[in-house]
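Next up, a chain.

===
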Amino acid sequence: MAVMMQAFYWDAPIQENKEGQWWNFLAGKAPELAASGFNALWLPPICKAALARSPGYDPYDYFDLGDFDQKGSIKTLYGNRAELENLIRTLHANNIGAYADMVINHNSGADEEEVNPLDNQKRWTKFSPKSGKFPRDWNCFHPSRYERVIIEGENYAGYPHLCHRNPRVYEAMFEYARMIIEEIGFDGFRFDFAKGFGAWMIGLLAKYRYERDGKEVVPFVVGEYWSGPNDIEGWLDRVRAVTDNQIAAFDFPLRYKLKDMCDTLQYDLRNLTADGSVVAKRPFNAVTFVENHDMRDKEIINDKTLAYSFILMNEGYPCVFWHDYYNLGLARPNSPNGLDALIDAHHRYAGGDALILHADPDLYILERGGFEGQRGCIYVLNNLGDKWSGTSVKTRWQNQKFKPVAWDGHDIAHPDERTTDGDGNAEFPAPPRGYAVYAPA
């Protein structure tokens, strides 16, 4: 099992006084992140944006990675190409992968307005980037001669919306993806605002035969399709129809369940057992998360470690948010009460089948059966705010001692060890408004 980190938050270099130095800053953190158990970092957009201090979600020049004097700066908010390449080398030296944030539909910062002859509307669609690569005009955007009837995807914030069916656009996006994997050294893609373009485009970029150092590279691919479970499932089906690669989606439906669990009084934990999330139906296609850079006005306020315990003990590919880990201090190294302990438990124990042993409005108990080197575990989630709670459940282990390896809540007293009887039964409690993870001793 693996754990990803979103290695930035909105305006992170500005907030942390690291403008133009984020790539160098992350390189310095690589040994620490590896020791904490992170297997991959999702990095922010790498190219020059419309504004000097932009986080990058308004791309202007896809092939300027911080080396051309344009849009008010030479470096991007995060650094330049040489620093980015050094970061990727450093991550790889510490056995950490890197995923690039792909913003391939909406553009900004055009140099001139033009009239689109198809609808006689004037728009900012004339781009003359100093890299000299991918200059574009109105016919690279919607509406375009290359799409007579259907305009694929939703528009974003009124930005010019790339038409991927234009061969110039199609070729530029392929070249951009090829550069990211083969030259810069990334290991995968996170596609921003996947609603904004056809699923076929992700499928084709995913299945291209990338090569690096004489070896084929199959990128990890995850899409941000911010919608409900049925829409995400439909999108995954559309992508799967054009590639046999494994494609993942961020589990937004689960994230909103987790917010309700943390911030809603008397939340019924049985909601966590129901359908309505990506991980419940397609665990191998789910990237689970608690927060991201877009949740600034939708963040979880209370008992956030409950949500992290759920994604780190359950199936799916969990993603930890930099701001939660570092700025909110939830890592809590050298303690059983933080994310570091949960990440360690995830790697050591939380493998194999996930089986819900008990669920009622206030108590949820999950068994992970174990897989290869992971021995399995029992995860207990207690929604009661005033007392420890647990119940006897039947596990797959007979006469087995269990030790608590991670726990947190409104009372962080050390849980007792537990031992199953000859039929595999034992009672497993968790702290008030808290969780506990028990592993075979």
About this structure: The domain at 4-105+165-250 is CATH 3.20.20.80 (TIM Barrel).
